[in-house]
Amino acid sequence: MSFITRHLGPDADERATMLNSVGYDSVEALVSAALPANIRAEEDPQLPAALTEFQAQEKLRGYAEKNTLLKSFYGQGFSDTITPPVIRRGLLEDAGWYTAYTPYQPEISQGRLEALLNFQTLIEDLTGLPIANASLLDEASAVAEAVGLMSRAVKKGRRVVLDSRLHPQVINVAAERARAIEVEVEITDLREGLVGEDIVGAVIAYTGTEGDILDPRALIEELHTRGALATVVADPMSLLLLEAPGEFGADIVTGSTQRFGVPLFFGGPHAAYMAVTEKLKRQMPGRLVGVTKDQDGFPSYRLALQTREQHIRRERATSNICTAQALLANVASMYAVYHGPVGLKNIAERIHARATAFAATVKGAGLKLVTDSFFDTVTVTGVDAAAVKAKLQEAGYLVRAIGADKVSVSFGESASEADVAALAAGFGISAVQEAKAALPEDLKRKSPYLTHKIFNSTHSETQMLRYLRKLSDRDLALDRTMIPLGSCTMKLNPTAAMEPISWPEFAGIHPYAPEETTAGWRELIEELEEWLSQITGYAKVSIQPNAGSQGELAGLLAIRRYHVANGDTERDIILIPSSAHGTNAASATLANLRVVVVKTADDGSIDVADLDAKIEQHGNRMAGIMITYPSTHGVFDPEVREVCQKVHAAGGQVYIDGANMNALSGWAKPGEFGGDVSHLNLHKTFTIPHGGGGPGVGPVGVAEHLVPFLPGDPNAEMDASTPLDSSQGVPVTSTKYGSAGVLPISWGYLAMIGTQGVADATAGAILCANYLAKNLKDSFPVLYTGNEGLVAHECIFDLRELTDASGVTAADVAKRLIDYGFHAPTLSFPVAGTLMVEPTESEDLGELDRFIEAMRAIRAEIQEIIDGKVEYESSVIHNAPYTAEIVTADEWPFKFTREQAAYPVASLRRNKYFPPVRRIDEAYGDRNLVCACPPPEAFAENTENTAG
């Protein structure tokens, strides 16, 4: 049996049943009717013949074997670590965790929210600051976010100082992002103090890229005296031994948690972090998990202060972060839980001991060190760097050569005494010497950390195994039920493609390893980029952006730099339809483009008359337009070519948001029907799992004229004075290939489906969506349809008239679906009072019919209110969802029966999911913001008050 037959939910007989229901005799006829003929691809994408699952893994094995797995002592922000097997197998490789969606429906996300709250508590404790977010994308872009945060918080001045002791990739990404928003950047060695005025803040390395440790207290005091802010970039492993930056006045602390059990992954995905002072909490980018309570008063978790987030603030957004690194933050969280404060300190001390032994050895042999104070990185100077590096590489070790005469050796968790001896031998030294700690005495850690019970009670494998299972059981993920989220494509993540990501020959490769040791990785990436170019019709694709939001930003920066390079410096306006994804406007703002909104017509398409007016008004200043295709309203707009032509005629570029490629792949190519640039969501169409809110990968594809402006190498020599009009791209993430570690998933998916399979998957998505729309339109009107009344791969159900008649809201329906065992559809986007549904091609007819049954049953519950049989306030739908605890309590406080609440359809009797909490009080959590682990007694105090 081919893989595509396993990927597609409905089999041939089921597809025939569904086609009959929607009125077509073939999938080809259905897609041809839905898809405008004028955008059909000129030819099919040229992908290799489809492989079986076994063949795909064999080919991946071949790529893996072409990589040389060296022992990594390179450092520069990426360290050797050991992922505990119980966490690797029970979390990273467990579908209950990696197929979960972003926890916007908190009642069915309590497990992953608790894990993320553990992560926040870990960061708050180690940094000494009161508020931490639930992860950012990577260290370099996190520092860029900190620069933006400082520039917003300090109103006077537009200059930021970057410590030259930061890692090169951090400097390059942060500097270019700052320049994009017209923040002046100065790069200087902050050991020599501050120079100049009008500073909004400084970013301080703690420790430096060559290992030295700067005492930042005087520097931070001077910044504060000037009214500026201080950002400290710190390795959280070092903070187990070094004083917390919050203790000496840091306003923002950021960095990477990669070495907390997350593999090197050839550069990512890795969870960055950010912690801030109390006064900055409402301006901090990224998601924030907070503690609140459900309607019975039981402590619960939710995403807090959501009004800060980009999808709500749009062009007023201060960040475009959409996908974070939730899955990897959870790995780091569990690594801390598993080891606890004592175990973590032991790991840090062992790392430091290996470094000091090596330092004493080379110094004792007469070699010179850059610094005598360090945590894990020892830099030797005055040597033939190339020769030492080559000798050690031959022996199986990867170290960092800095210039011609420096070699940096950075120690990780697995470093042994034998490794110290082998590394010393690379410098021609035979005897290893003992050494004392090399930390500055006045910077040694004194403050406690990880005192909460969760970090001090779960250290055996049995305990961890059960804790992971307990948390995943509290969630609804794709391994349990359909997640019918419009615009988010929660489809099958093929296990055969998932397995290889943790193979050591992929997972254990440092992102800055020499090219001769990474041939397999680079061949895989080059092939994947070519396949994506074939599918999209673009000249070239870069997979560097590590989220859809970063792909958007990279594409818009390419457009902006293209115009400036051509002398069109005044083109700084981007047209964005009012129905567009919230990230579009946010990304445009970060690219320093001014947003002008284009109206949406009554049928959901772009209002062409308003577009003409906006082009007439802004044509000479128009950089381009951002459109989503098919539209966010779930239809194929027939005028898309006309829109592209109008914008091109006025000198603008066309950005086509590729979030909905699940409805185009194999049938139409954005690069052919008018696009100049698109980003793709590999975590949507191309099966990288969402992981509870990340990882994501957002490759950007461009037409030939924009190829020079694709993202550049973050390690390349860059000059902050390089003019914006230079014909070169700028890096958006820490590594050249972004989150390479998860690329084997999309490679495997495409390798196993081939050209025909790509088209079949798209057709399947369109068939499933139209089947739901056809069978539910009498219960819930479909808001927008296209040709012959068809939708694309998703549809919007309009509840507004029902809400007016009954009081039942779209949110009520979302919560009630939990009792039927379903994750909610997308709520009130892009139209308030609606539900947007996308079943994907992976759901079989039985699951689709189960969803239809649930929605019809809910519609009947609404009708009882409309008919006056039940009052809205006391209805089964308004009080949903229902926990096992309340259903089995001695007292039942409702007029409807327990059976109506918990078992509204017969199929639930043998397959029932109970949410761990009832409906959550969203407002309470924002009014009483708590973003760290609550004490156990907070739960114990409420156990007697959970029955209503």
Q: Would you write up a description of this structure?
A:
The chain is an alpha/beta fold. It has a single domain (53-758, 879-948), classed as 3-Layer(aba) Sandwich (Aspartate Aminotransferase, domain 2), CATH 3.40.640.10. 37% of the residues lie in helices and 11% in strands. It has 30 helices and 25 strands. A seven-stranded mixed β-sheet has the order 2-8-7-6-5-3-4, sandwiched between helices. Strands 11-12-15-14 form a four-stranded antiparallel β-sheet, covered by helices on one side. Strand 19, helix 22 (640-649) and strand 20 (653-657) form a beta-alpha-beta unit.
User: Strand tally, please?
Assistant: 25
Radius of gyration: 28 Å
Number of domains: 1
Shape: globular
Order of strands, main sheet, comes to: 2-8-7-6-5-3-4
Strand residue content: 5-15%
Helix segment tally: 30
Protein name: glycine dehydrogenase (aminomethyl-transferring)
Subunit structure: The glycine cleavage system is composed of four proteins: P, T, L and H.
Cofactor: pyridoxal 5'-phosphate
Domain Glycine cleavage system P-protein N-terminal: 6-424, 436-712
